[in-house]
Amino acid sequence: MCGIVGHFGPQNSVEIVLEGLKRLEYRGYDSAGVSFIDEKENLNVFKKSGKLQNLKDHLGEVNFTARSCIGHTRWATHGEVNDENSHPHSNNEIALVHNGIIENATYLRKQLQDQGFKFQSETDSEVFLGLLAVSRKKGLSFKETIIESFVQIEGNSAFVILDSQTSDIFAFKRGAPLVAGINEISSEVLVSSDPYALAGMVNKIYFPEDNVICHLSASNKNLLNFYEMDGTTSTRYLSKMLAIDAAVSEKGDFEHFMLKEIHEQPELIRSLTQYYFDGEGLESLKRISKIETSKIHISACGTAFYAGLLIRDFFERFNRINCTVELASEFRYRNPIIDSKDLGLFISQSGETADTLAAHTLCKNEGIKTISIVNTEGSTLYREATDNLLIRAGIEVGVASTKAFTQQVLTGRLFSAALEGVLNNEEEKKKLVNKYALLAERVDELLLKIDEIKEVAEKIYNYNGFFFTGRGAYYPVALEGALKLKEIAYVHAEGYAAGELKHGPIALIDHRMVNVAIIGPELFEKTISNISEIKTRKGIIVTIGEENNSELENISDYYIQLNLKGLDELRPTYINIVNQLLSYYIAKLKGTDIDKPRNLAKSVTVE
Ligand code: AGP
Fold first, then answer.
1. What number does the ligand 1 atom closest to the CA of 350 have?
2. In this predicted model, what pLDDT tens digit does every residue of 366-423 receive, in sequence order?
């Protein structure tokens, strides 16, 4: 989805904004643009459809320098993909970039046209430029102009605006992501729709609430000021100090961010129990352990939804709490039965997924408590939930979610353990910490035998289609495995409950189909029978299961052997990492754009 960046400071703003936009490429986009005030105080706008490189070529060899610049990567909604519809939009006095949708754009466009405003694009975003231009003519200050215009638009939006008279930048939002940051040493100030654009560049980060104006200006003592929509100073933002670590935004020795992120998992698993049992997370876990509820509604999208299916198993198995898991896009439009003592649980890496936020709002409107399992601190979900459990995965750049899934499931298990009273039981706590440590160790071992998985990928990548199957807690892993493969390798893959295959999909099985069969010790014999049904029909069998098992040896064309001992309820999470690697290597053989797969956006901020 669209990405926005703004920079103000002594360094060359154009370069910094282009670097920010490069980092936002992973979110998906189809055009890019920048606007800045050059040394002769002229407002420049450069925009191009296609990749960011097109924009860079368009900027050419000219070494533009500027102290303030705004930029945008556009994911088209209103108006086709072309240069005119790309952002920034400008009238030579003001330039703006926009993320979101102006829902009453058609009505406002007509009104503005009647008032003589000449549109240059088909976008809803340019409507806001029209509103600013009309207000400005009344002689209002820039801040007043923004305030008067912002109240007129409907829908969720974030804007970053450059004023050519002062070179000041203004940023504000309603129901859309926005983050600001400052580097107190070099006096750089940045804003963006995504904290990743700021990583390694700032040492203090701010998450403004809705309707707070961030003002980036040399005239501000602190360079960055916050205002309410009535013009008074605002304190409605979260702030956080950060270490400046440029490495977080780099791939290091890895060919792709996805591979890097898969490899980060052992360390992240290790630090999760440390954070929750001995660190800052303890307080949130303690608060959450006091929740009394007899029903939990889990709602999420995509990979986070599959994590929810595994978390439901924890609540049922360890807490005997009634729990439902639903796709947020469905839950939000049903009429779910919600009792005042129920709890809403929302899982999201970004904390900005439109459907998940809407499902959350539905629960809030029903007056129930809500908890988020979320990666992005300060995101909309994080701010709006009654309480939060951070998954501490760090920035996830690969569009295909890997480490976030693992951390979501593991955080969900800690939630269920807290409800079980584990925080007050040293022995149980130790057992769980040891189990997480064992999981981290096993993932380390797995990463050492990556070549075995690569070899299987080489054997199967050219087959026609893939069925990932599993039973019980391995069924969500099958669903997630199939999602991973289709999103990055562009091959047809389905996740199925192994026992359900014969109720229809088995008709598709022949010698050109691969069955990736996920099999743990639970329901072992029954799953073997399901695999036999596929083998009989000449399907290619890849099993992922306990090592040194003769039955698995006999039934498999390719057998990925794992040491599952001692992992108990964490086994599915472990096996899922094999699927992540298998998908990665199949995609690599297919030559796809692994970190930025076609048609996908990292954070889906429209429904
Ligand atoms: C995962 O690989 C996907 N790209 C996608 O399904 C993702 O999990 C989904 O869009 C939800 O995102 P969220 O966790 O940021 O809410």
1. 15
2. 999 999 999 998 888 998 999 999 999 998 989 999 999 999 999 999 999 999 999 9
Q: Is 350 in the pocket of ligand 1 (CB under 6 A)?
A: yes
57 CB-near residues (< 8 Å, 6+ apart): 48
pLDDT, mean of residues 34-52:
91
Residue 564 has pLDDT above 90, yes or no: yes
Residue 377 zone, left/alpha/beta (φ > 0; ψ -120 to 50; rest): beta
Predicted confidence (pLDDT) per residue in 105-141, tens digit: 999 999 999 999 999 999 999 999 999 999 999 989 9
The confidence score (pLDDT) of residue 483 equals 98
Can you list the domains of the chain with their CATH numbers?
3-249 (3.60.20.10), 257-448 (3.40.50.10490), 450-590 (3.40.50.10490)
Q: Is 354 in the pocket of ligand 1 (CB under 6 A)?
A: no
Q: How many residues does the structure list for the chain? A: 607
2 is catalytic: yes
Q: Smallest Cα–Cα separation from 346: which of 338, 337, 355?
A: 355
Q: 309, 401, 408: which to mutate for ligand 1, most atoms within 8 A of CB?
A: 401
User: What confidence score (pLDDT) does residue 446 get?
Assistant: 95
Half-sphere exposure of residue 129: CA atoms within 13 angstroms, side-chain side: 25
**How far apart are the C-alpha atoms of 61 and 58, rounded to whole Å?**
9
Distance CA(320)–CA(313), nearest Å, equals: 9
C-alpha 281/C-alpha 389 separation (Å) is 8
488 Cβ closer than 6 Å to some ligand 1 atom: no
